[in-house]
UniProtKB/TrEMBL annotation:
This is Transposase. Residues 19-126 form the Transposase IS204/IS1001/IS1096/IS1165 DDE domain.
């Protein structure tokens, strides 16, 4: 029997890199549940656009995803269309703001932990001290 968590993990990884299912098991899964294969192909196509920085096929992908019977894909397409220019730029650009976003998330976690019980100076010192600690370890 195939665990549900394996199916969800398989959707977001290349089939060759997925080690929890044998190729025979994944092929059986795709034959038994064709919608899983459709979702897998759609997700992998989108991921390939991101990895290769090639946004040329985005319009075709959006049309294809919009015609699929899955409401989750429709929701994703609607959100993508609302911010299409930014998404195209993110696909085509080699730059990422991931490092900045990670730093902001870290700062917000520290701020929540302190729960408003300190001044900005104390927050600043705590962030700097934690950065120093992590760079040493």
């Amino acid at each position: 029997t195939i665990q549900r968590s394996y199916v969800l993990q398989l959707l977001y990884q290349p089939e060759y890199a997925f080690e929890k299912l044998t190729p025979e098991e994944s092929q059986c899964l795709f034959e038994e549940y064709p919608f899983v294969k459709e979702l897998y192909d759609s997700i992998q196509t989108f991921k390939k656009m991101l990895e290769t920085h090639d946004g040329k096929g985005l319009g075709d992908w959006l049309v294809q995803a919009e015609q699929s019977p899955y409401k989750e894909l429709h929701s994703f397409v609607d959100g993508t269309k609302q911010d299409l220019d930014a998404i195209l730029m993110a696909i085509q650009s080699p730059y990422s703001n991931g490092l900045v976003e990670g730093s902001i998330n870290k700062l917000k976690v520290i701020k929540r932990i302190m729960y408003g019980r300190c001044s900005f100076a104390l927050l600043r010192n705590k962030v700097l001290l934690l950065e120093r600690f992590h760079s040493v370890n």
